[in-house]
Structures are given as C-alpha cells and as structure tokens.
Amino acid sequence: MELRRMTPQHPPTNPAQSQPVTPEALRKRYEAGATVDELVAASGLSYGTVLNRLHDAGTVMRMSWQTRRMRQDPQARRRLAARLRTLYEQHGATLTELAAAAGGTRRAARRLLIEAGGTVRTTQQTLRMRSAARAAERQKVALSLRARYEEGAAVPELAEECNYSVATVYRLLHQAGTPMRPQHRHCPGPREGKRP
Questions:
Q1: Long-range pairs for 98-103 at CB < 8 Å and ≥24 separation?
Q2: What are phi and psi of 63, to 5 degrees?
Q3: What is the three-class DSSP state of 20?
Q4: Which of 127, 117, 128, 123 is nearest to 86 (CA)?
Q5: 107: closest CA among 117, 121, 119, 95?
Q6: Which of 66, 65, 63, 61 is nearest to 51 (CA)?
Q7: How far apart are alpha carbons 47 and 49 in whole angstroms?
Q8: 83 vs 112: CA distance, rounded Å
Q9: For 11-39, how does the pLDDT look when each residue is reduced to its tens digit (9 = 90+)?
Q10: Could you tell me the pTM of the whole model?
Q11: Cβ within 8 Å of residue 35, ≥6 positions away
C-alpha cells in the first residue's frame, strides 16, 4: 500500500517574508490598490491577521467596487485627492465638507488629503482661516461700496442695492476709509419746488 506524503501546511517562504510585516507596510500596499486577499498571499499571514494589522494602522477600508474603480482609473484617486486639498487649503473646507464632496467618510477624506501632501489643521486653525476669509470678503465689499459712493450714490441707495441696513453701509464705508459727504448731500440734486 502506497503511503501518501503529507505536505506541511506552511506558506511558501520568500525573502520578503523573512522580515516582519508591519501594519504600516500593509496599509501602504492596501492604499496603493492591493486587496486583502493579495496581502494575505504576499505576506503569508492569515486573513484575520492582515485585517487586524490594517485596522491597527488606521486604514480606511474600501468596498470591492471602490477597488475596481480605483484599478480601472489609477489617476482618479490622485485627482480627487488634489481637488480635496484645494478645497481644504484655499477655501477653508472642513474634513466633514471634504467627506461630503468625496462621497465618503471623514477618515477617508483625511487620508486623501494627506496623500495629496496636505496638512490637517486643528479646529482653531480652521476657525481663524474662515474668519480671515470673511474679513477679506467684507473688505472687498467695503471698497466696492466706497467706489459707488464716490461716484455719487447715496447711502440709502447702496443699502437697498446690497440688502444691508443703512448702519451697515455706514460701517463698511468707514472701514474702507471713505471721505463722507456733508449730511445734506447724501441725496445729490436740487430739490424741486423748494424756495428760500
């Protein structure tokens, strides 16, 4: 009777497996497009161990359709990451707003931002950035109102055009350093029918 030779149930060895497979290394390969099955085959680790190490590294897991889309168009992820970085750095978007723009989670948006070379801000930095942006926009409006005022427009007229209160228009004109006309000349033009 022929005896069957038992094959050891160990994964094939290769030079890469002689070194420990770190969670960060697995995450890097996963985010480059590798699937969990491919990581299992390449590392010799069990499926559960690979998943645990990816989780330990803070990896944002994909759905299978996301992997397929990523492989079909390898440039798509880079383009999306670059767009999110622009929104984040130039327009002051938050991670929540980036997640909405990308149709994903905050963690996924954060990862894309970092991949594009962006640096995650603190909440206070975001608030300061948005405050500065509002101040710049307000100054722009103030200068526009000053130009219209110096062309002869009256304050009530400017308030109506911009849907501001008269007091707000005065504040913005003052902010722009506008030389104000005498009070009786805010509505230029002779008054008809008035005699001395």
A1: none
A2: -85, 160
A3: coil
A4: 117
A5: 95
A6: 61
A7: 6
A8: 10
A9: 444 444 446 789 999 998 888 878 888 88
A10: 0.42
A11: 67
